[in-house]
Amino acid sequence: MWCFRAPGGLQRFIWVFSADRNLFVPPHQKRSALATHIHRIYAIAPWQAVTDAKRSASL
Predict the structure, then answer these.
(1) Which of 4, 29, 36, 58 qualifies as a cystine partner to 9, CB 3.0-4.6 A?
(2) 56: in domain
(3) Does some domain include residue 38?
């Protein structure tokens, strides 16, 4: 917590980071590398759609 000025800043960071992590990291099961790779490919599509939409809206 030493990098954050207030506990609220840390809480906001953890809230956003955990949502992103849950999207890209598959559940903890015995999975092959191929299954993990496919999971991340499927997860990146909505991520790119959202970030591209935000980027084009800001231009």
Answers:
(1) 4
(2) yes
(3) yes
